[in-house]
Amino acid sequence: MTAISPHASVSAPASEARTSGRVFNFGAGPSTLPDDVLKQIQQDVWNYRGSGIGILELSHRGKEYDKLIAEIDDDLRAIGNIPRNYKILFMTGGATSQNYIVPANLLPPGGTADHIVTGYWAENTLADARQYASCSNTKATIHVAATSADKNHSYIPADADIKYSASQGRGGPTYVHITSNNTIYGTQWHRLPKIPEGAFLVSDACSDFFWKPIDVTKFGVIYGGAQKNMGTTGCSFIVIRDDILERANKDIPRMLQYGVFSREESRPNTPPTFAIYTVGLMAKWIKAQGGLAALEKLNREKAGLVYAALDANTGFYTPHVRKEDRSFMNITFACKGVGAKEGGGGMEMDARFLADAGKAGLAVLKGHRAMGHGGGMRASLYNAMPLAGAQALAEFIGDFAKKNG
Amino acid sequence: MTAISPHASVSAPASEARTSGRVFNFGAGPSTLPDDVLKQIQQDVWNYRGSGIGILELSHRGKEYDKLIAEIDDDLRAIGNIPRNYKILFMTGGATSQNYIVPANLLPPGGTADHIVTGYWAENTLADARQYASCSNTKATIHVAATSADKNHSYIPADADIKYSASQGRGGPTYVHITSNNTIYGTQWHRLPKIPEGAFLVSDACSDFFWKPIDVTKFGVIYGGAQKNMGTTGCSFIVIRDDILERANKDIPRMLQYGVFSREESRPNTPPTFAIYTVGLMAKWIKAQGGLAALEKLNREKAGLVYAALDANTGFYTPHVRKEDRSFMNITFACKGVGAKEGGGGMEMDARFLADAGKAGLAVLKGHRAMGHGGGMRASLYNAMPLAGAQALAEFIGDFAKKNG
């Protein structure tokens, strides 16, 4: 490894990312970051705010870091309208580790959690919660209140189809768990479920938190990894209401207790400082875009362009999701197959789509294997995807259908 | 936040870090990184190996990342002489989370772990292991085989002073836990303890792994955070022998199982990709320095300079640690006090030392409060601290004593 010269391409504007050596990255996470954020990181890695020390090397007990985490907390509250009676925690292990950390902290002995299962990660959450219940002392029950598995997770269940545990003659749930956006199948909750009185809502918002303004007070807990809408890998966020935090279990390992992370400002030991700092950069970037209201408008415009291109070519493409449940973050579709059989024309056309898109600088569009039929395509349009990326993709979708239809 | 211009100072050679806007950072972790590593990061954040995607945005399921983690595994094995019957895992939560993850994975029901307690983090490890034993189903016993607490952790216990559980009429331990380097007090194991037959050695090597060549086969498990000798915050490494891995507990949450991390190449979910990548850069940097043998020579020279400066001024400074147990990573000392009482002359002189050192570009030298007497000073000389930093500090130590003695 040798020293590098300062890269010449750094000054390209975000809307022309492709002229700067960078492609449009439609990956589902880790996902693309704004050019301005990357440039700030390049500077701070060398020397953070004139300290003479880079951000990667900065003590988590020093005054610069004290200031940094106070700013991040303020900025997240400001842009997300997060009330003072909610705490924002940063942990590690991703949203997947919350699969057991949530019940470990929040389920009382013999308690019940109701899960609404709307996709791949929701299935994992369910399985991990059940595994936790079986290997711990909690004697907890994990109940499936509804699932969209019957139609390959292509829709969000209606309230009428949700059967909470209380309605089945058992004790009501402590909480109801939803996955607000289903990254792999491409559905998204555009309403919240009606939940039993006394229960609170826990939302895995890994792939759509901070995509638009939301009413945080409708939730007891919101959690996710930062690497989609809000930064990079290595830290997970937990937004949790004070009264739930106060009741959280203390009879679990110290490093898993929400209460410990709250009291110790998410640094009971060396935290993932760089990942947390990157969340802070994203918060400042969102502020600079005009906040979440402006971002929602942009995100709707981006997804609108891509869905419109698919809907204009329904003879060629099959979108996976029922229209009213479509995600604004992850758009899933496939080319229609000749006979639509496994390994048939659709999959070959999908492969051609992905290859041609790659050549056009539209990258990481392959869908997830769990979708079946090879996975098809998935375009993730998180906060940091510029409008130009969505425009380029929409145009490509139309052109490809014309050329191959 | 506005776009920045490429930093002008990047091309300064490592040995002149202070002329580049950077200080010598003696922090105990997160610690200083080599200039070349930082420059590589600046490049890769924008565009990783010509992929058009930055390292922070790179999919953990893509071919670039496949290649990256294979390279890291190869490089770590090569420089560390890690045999094929050991696996290298990356997890999150730091070494502190291993305090419960180690017994959760490795202690059979009713099993015993023997701890040799040689410092602040070793005390924490003991407390967390006991807390885990009390809040889990394991009915495990955590036994203190020896402690250096009687002399404020200023020495490493002799074999004759270690009383294993087997010798007290109980079942022998499954493993013996040591902390190979004590970051806060500044002691280091320069031999390994003789352990009972049938037991294996578990070493928290958070602050001295990869400081020199070691015989990995003497250990069952070696673990630590990467942010001292091997990178930045956000990932912990676990080097574990295959037979121990195979016996590891499966009746704990999936995301805590060593077996899962081994089978799934440390990516059962989105891993801390950037932190792991930085470990890889450190491995390549160590290779470029001539490997661990060359690094040991350099590390001995660096620590030798600083200890020599202290020993030349014994009328002015008190090193904390018994000479034969001195750490090559963390050097702890204080100015002699007038009467040596709490709040006395020593502490005032320490404060002056720290202030003057800071002005001279020698940063983050404050010792830990747990040391007592205000904490005194601690100079951390991890792998990435250049010789010039140790030279500058040694010179300052002499000059300061002359000026204030």
Structure, described:
2 copies of one chain form a homodimer. Chain A is α/β, with parallel strands linked by helices and 405 residues long. In chain A, 35% of the residues lie in helices and 15% in strands. Chain A has 10 helices and 14 strands. In chain A, strands 2-10-9-8-5-3-4 form a 7-stranded mixed sheet. In chain A, helix 2 crosses helix 7. The longest helix of chain A has 21 residues. Chain A is globular and about 60 Å long. The N terminus of chain A is likely disordered. At the A-B interface, helix 1, helix 3, helix 4 and helix 7 of A face helix 1, helix 3, helix 4 and helix 7 of B.
Strand order of the largest sheet of chain A: 2-10-9-8-5-3-4
Element-level helix/strand string of chain A: EHHEHEHEEEEEEEHHHHEEHEEH
Distance between the termini of chain A: 48 Å
The helix fraction of chain A, in percent, is 25-40%
Calculate the mean pLDDT score of chain A and round it. 92
- Count of DSSP strands of chain A: 14
Query: Biggest chain pair contact, residues each?
Result: A-B, 86 and 86 residues
In quaternary terms, these chains amount to homodimer
β-sheet strand percentage of chain A = 15-25%
What characteristic shape of chain A results from the CA principal axes?
A: globular
Largest sheet of chain A: 7 strands, mixed
Structural class of chain A: alpha/beta
Q: Give the count of helical stretches of chain A.
A: 10
The low-confidence parts of chain A are: 1-17, 338-343
Radius of gyration of chain A: 22 Å
